[in-house]
Structure formats: C-alpha cells, structure tokens
Specification:
The protein is α/β, with parallel strands linked by helices. Helices cover about 35% and strands about 20% of the residues. The protein contains 13 helices and 18 strands. The strands form three sheets. A ten-stranded mixed sheet has the order 16-15-14-13-7-11-10-9-17-18. A six-stranded parallel sheet has the order 3-2-1-4-5-6, sandwiched between helices. Helix 5 packs parallel to helix 6 and helix 11 crosses helix 13. The radius of gyration is 22 Å and the shape is globular.
Length: about 450
Amino acid sequence: MSNEISRRNIVAAALAQAVIPTTARSYGRILGANDRIQIGQIGSGHRSDGHRHMLKLSSKNDALFDYRSVCDLWTVNRERGADQAQRMFGARPKTYKYSEELLADGELDAVMIATGDHQHARILAEVVRAGKDCYCEKPMANTLADAKLARDTVKSSKQVIQMGSQWLSDPYQHLVRDMIRAGKIGKVVSIDQAWNFNGPRWHTPQDPNVAQIREQDTDWNRWLLGRAERPFDPRMYFEFRIFKDFSGGITDQWYSHGSGLVHFYLDTFIPDDTVANGGIFAWHDVRENPDTFQCLSTFTAQQVLYSYCTTFGNGYGDRTIIRGTHGTLWSPGGEGSPQWWFEPERSSGWRSNRVFELKPGVSTAAQPVLLPGQTVPPPVNQDDDLAYHTDNWLQCMRSRKTPNGNIETGFAHAVALIMATRAYREGKKVYWNRKTEVIDDRSLE
C-alpha cells in the first residue's frame, strides 16, 4: 500500500508540474564558450536512437557536450539506451525512471524528448519550467490545449527550444525558400506533396518489445499522461501511432513535417481551413488510424492551395511541387528530399502534358537547385538524422539565439495537424480562427 501511495504521489506531482506557473525552482547554468553542454534524454525508444545518432554526428563538428543522463519508464529501454550511449560517447549516463528525477539534476543544461506523441507537449512544459533548454521530437502536440500549454510555457521563459522538424535546417530547403522569396517562380499558387510507403507502417505483429514488457516493469498510468484510463496494453504502448487516442498517425508523423515545410516556404503559419478524407484501405490489422489519407488546405491571405496525401499501400510517386505564375519548383522525392529542380513557365497560355522527368538531365528546361560549389544534384533521399538540426540547436544554446525549429514553428505544425485530424475524423471542413485561436467547423454560421 505504501509503495502504491508513493507512486501515486510521484505521478500527481509530475502532472501538477504541467500546469503550475514558473517559480523560483526554475534555474539554468550560464554556459561559457568552452563549457560542455550537459544533455539528458527523456524517452529511450526507437526515436531516441535517432537523436543519439544526430548528437554523434554533431560531435564531429566540434560540439562540446556530454550525454549525461537517460530517462525511460520501462526498465529495458532505459538500460538499452544507457548501453548504446556508452558505446557511442564513451561514458555510461545516469539513468532515471521518472522525468522529475532527471530534471532535479542542477548540472543538467538541456533535454531531448523522444516519448510518445501525446506526451511531448506536457513534458516540454515540464522541462522548460525546470529551467532546461530542450529538443522536442515532433509533433509538438496533438491537442490544442496541450499545444497552447507548451507554447505559452516556452514563451514565458528564456529557454532555447528546438522542435524535431529537422528539415527546417536542411540547406536545400533554405535554397528553395530563398528562390520563392526572390520571386523566382512568381506568385505561389499551389503546393502539392505526396509522400508514400508500401507496408504496415508502425505495426509489427511480432514486435519483441510487446512480448517482453511486463506492467510491473513500467508505469502505465504515468505513460497515459492525462489520456483516459484503460487496462495495460503493450501493443498500444509501443504502437501508439496507430491508435487514435494517442496519435493521428499520418497527420502526427508525416503531415507535421509536410505542413511545417509549407509554413517555411510561404513564411506563414497555419492554414485557414482544411478538409480531409481517407481510411484503412490496405492494412486491416489492429490500427485505428488511416493508412491512406489526403487533405486540402487554403492559406487565404497568400492565396495558396495546399494539397497533401500519403498512402501506405503503394510506394509510387513521391513528390513535392510548388507552382508559381513564373515557374515551378519540384522535388522527385519524399519527406525532406534534397533534390530540387526549377522549371520556368514558357509563356502565358502555355500548357504541357509532359510528366516531370525523374532522371537528372533529361529535361533541358529543368535546372537543378544546387548549393554553392555543387555541379550535380544530390540524391533523391537523405537520412532522417540530420546533423544540421542538432548543430543549430547546440549553437543556439550557446548564443541564446532562436533555433530554426522554434516554438512558433512547433505550435504551427501542431495546429495544422490537429485541424487535419479533426477534419478527417469529423468529416467536416474545419477553420482556424486567428483571433480567438479556436478550431471550428462554422456550422453555426
């Protein structure tokens, strides 16, 4: 009984931290130019491996940091993460079960969050209130209340926050935005993204973790973190992305990147309206979220139509197409592809039935988008673990400048994905009210 009461007290205290105001307990070290940044990690599942890999790549750029600690509710993940960190960085980090234990470390400077989608925002608020800088995996939030909590907490602090939307630090995406800003393609009229995959994404029938975990080795109620109580479900614990109470699936994971890039290209945040459709058309397993999804949004002030689609039943035809009155920027690749081409409009009234050529150099009109010193286009695909993004975060922690994936970009992609998820689930066109910051279907108007 005493152990149960103690556990409940810990959970209650942690949840309270998500809503209490900043107090004198918040603090942070002032980093000198040569001080080693002390980094901890909350969540040590699959995505945390990518975070550690990004840090390892950044360490090659003379980044001075120590991987100090790792926190995970599940004993196995916690020890596995510590073992991997020891192999990668040469020293075994401290291990903690609960986030408040890790955050009590006065020498800790920053935290990377790699937990479940529904946990990001509340843990981000907790980290910031403890006076730590943060790298938070996307999506920042998948409920509007959590998105506002995280944003308002960060904006009332001095902490440096980097959202895990790594393509915002990719130099090729910056080149594309620069061309749009310079008017190279004229006025943008539409953006079209299609990112696909052939397979039962996020569901592994024989997942060894599902067979291995025991409820007594974790804290199920803490993992739920405010979501409705239910019996322990190991499948849900590891495959939360396919269950609607914890994630929108495609919207949380892929569309959050897509919408974030569109905000980046257009220098604006959050579409004014969204309509969506789709369903479970390919993988009739335990999933509740769609494996085929499409949404359409309008940016009213910019007069831009934005189309996004993903299917997990067919991997053909990945692309991003940005159409302007003077030309087109297009990428023959999926999420974060660095290969881009520019093709000018030939004349007013010109019309082409030609499908974009996917082989470099075939189309004489298309010009590759190249970094200075490049002579050939980069590959169509690149690895998710982009060191540019962790480099940017580490540099900004020292300079106290605003990172590329700041809290405003996180709030924007969160609202966009929440709108898309609601539009799909409710079968209604939804609208973002920029004055009241409310999502509604305007059914009363």
